[in-house]
Amino acid sequence: MAMPEGHRNRQHARSGATTSDQPAAFDREGARAFAKSLARSLLDDRCEDVVILDVADQTTVTGCIVIASGTSDRQMRAALDHLDDVAREHGTKVARVSKDDNTTWLLADFVDVVVHLFEPNARAFYDLESMWLDAPRIDPPEPSRRPGKDSPA
Fold first, then answer.
1. Which H or E element spans position 28?
2. Beta-ladder partners of 93
3. Looking at residues 130-150, what average pLDDT do you find?
4. Which helix (H) or strand (E) holds 69?
5. What is the pLDDT of residues 57-105, one digit of tens each?
6. How is the chain split into domains, by residue range?
7. Residue 104 and residue 125: Cα distance in Å, rounded?
8. In this predicted structure, what is the pLDDT of residue 26?
């Protein structure tokens, strides 16, 4: 069975290939910086319990995982949409995103960073953090102090 095209590209990007028609090698520090920027955006959108895991030594699928909890479907979708802006600022875009209606778990896959945004009960049920106990945690950044973001919701 053939692998999906996106999977081959991901595996190749993480393998260190450097020819002109192939993706650049994995940049661990770049992935960590991007994960922090994505986490900051989630915090700015009032997501809670934001965790960044460096899983580069545990898997070839991605470099970092960002996990956060949202307070409502609307808030989670808005936060997910804002991640596109962060990606553009970093010169990349989302490879895959989940946008199912009435979901309790949203996902944005940026290849080197994967973001999981949960409703709190779903997060507790799936407990992704326990799957990556050996992964180093990266301290999330402080939220930006942008106008309109500091006032209570």
1. helix 28-44
2. none
3. 81
4. strand 64-69
5. 999 899 999 999 999 989 999 999 999 999 999 999 999 988 776 689 9
6. 25-130
7. 11
8. 73
Predicted TM-score (pTM) above 0.70: yes
Look up the CATH architecture of domain 25-130. Answer: 2-Layer Sandwich (3.30)
How is the chain split among helix, strand and coil, in percent rounded to 5? 35, 20, 45
pLDDT in tens, 11-39: 444 444 434 444 556 788 999 999 999 99
> What is the residue-wise DSSP string for 80-98?
HHHHHHHHHHTT---SEE-
From the list 123, 45, 56, 133, the residue with the least C-alpha distance to 82 is: 45
CA–CA distance, 46 with 63 (Å, rounded to integer): 24
Distance CA 105, CA 33 (A): 24
Question: Tokens 């802006």 belong to which residue?
Answer: 85
> Which residues touch 55 (CB under 8 Å, ≥6 apart)?
62, 63, 64, 65, 132, 135
146 to 43, 79, 93: CA distances (angstroms): 12, 15, 23
Q: What is the pLDDT of residue 27?
A: 86
- The answer to whether 83 and 115 have CB atoms below 8 angstroms apart is yes
